[in-house]
Amino acid sequence: xxxxxxxxxxxxxxxxxxxxxxxxxxxxxxxxxxxxxxxxxxxxxxxxxxxxxxxxxxxxxxxxxxxxxxxxxxxxxxxxxxxxxxxxxxxxxxxxxxxxxxxxxxxxxxxxxxxxxxxxxxxxxxxxxxxxxxxxxxxxxxxxxxxxxxxxxxxxxxxxxxxxxxxxxxxxxxxxxxxxxxxxxxxxxxxxxxxxxxxxxxxxxxxxxxxxxxxxxxxxxxxxxxxxxxxxxxxxxxxxxxxxxxxxxxxxxxxxxxxxxxxxxxxxxxxxxxxxxxxxxxxxxxxxxxxxxxxxxxxxxxxxxxxxxxxxxxxxxxxxxxxxxxxxxxxxxxxxxxxxxxxxxxxxxxxxxxxxxxxxxxxxxxxxxxxxxxxxxxxxxxxxxxxxxxxxxxxxxxxxxxxxxxxxxxxxxxxxxxxxxxxxxxxxxxxxx
Length: 433
What we know:
Elements: H1 2-17, H2 24-34, H3 36-50, E1 62-79, E2 85-107, H4 111-177, H5 183-217, H6 240-250, H7 252-273, E3 278-291, E4 299-312, H8 320-387, H9 392-427
Antiparallel strand pairs: 1-2, 2-3, 3-4
Helix pairs in contact: 1-4, 2-4, 3-4, 4-5, 4-7, 4-9, 6-8, 6-9, 7-8, 8-9
């Protein structure tokens, strides 16, 4: 039963990896379509784009239709100039009116044109935020995906260690049965076998947790099972100067800061426009009628067209205008400082990430050589162990060295890939490979 348990444990990861493979391109495509953050930000972008029209900027007139009706019952007494007196109790009166009116601001110090430019800048800001969200989501998906690749490699290395420990344990039992080994050797092999079994179970649990996290990023059933690729593809020729130029043009955080600076300039221009006069034109067409049982006219009807123009000029408002302009200037200067700060921050992040990238590339080469050496050493030690020419502890040490070297190599590859992804994310050119 014990041997059957270990056999099932060693085979179950292979069964898990035989599920349908999810490629990185497919994962990113699913995330771009389903991810909740992207879907929410896309709605903000749609609202900002929908707001860009001349009517929302105040360039178009407003037209309204008006209808009114009124009625009443009154007791009325009148004395005419001739001395005649008239009196009506329960006098019924009624009136109705309907028509259309137009109001149009034809000049407001060019503020309407500035507001239109602000609406377009807000749309650009939404697009920059959308790109930042997409880059962050793609980075998270790629990070989780390559973490699964790394863990899959670790599972394979741990499984090899478990198979060797099972072989060593069986060998120790066989030797013990024929009197060539002590019970202590069997117990030591059993302890190591249990340790490797625990390591494999923990590694598989970590793999499953990361798999669930990736499903969450993809906004799909978190219980969905899948396999991933077996290897990393690391780009080793990234150029710092090219990345720096791309970051200045494409980095969404810097683009957002630039758009905010543009918005502050437009706001200052709009505030200064409040110094100029505002000119409005209006017109209306009205039809009305009224009736009463007592008066000089018991029924009247009117219809006609009216129009006019009005202008207002700000003269003095308690220095509020000057204060608003000064505040707008301060806001514009602050936005300019923010652009410089973000630019320097991006440059610093890019340089630090590039140094990390170069170091990890060197570590990948170093750890790959170490893993090959550890594998050769394990193969030689295994053959000697089969011949009984080395002690079990030496075999166990070679086994540990191989697992540790495999872990370090996988970790170096993963860190190098993360560094590559970070560089492309900062530059705004994160690729899907």
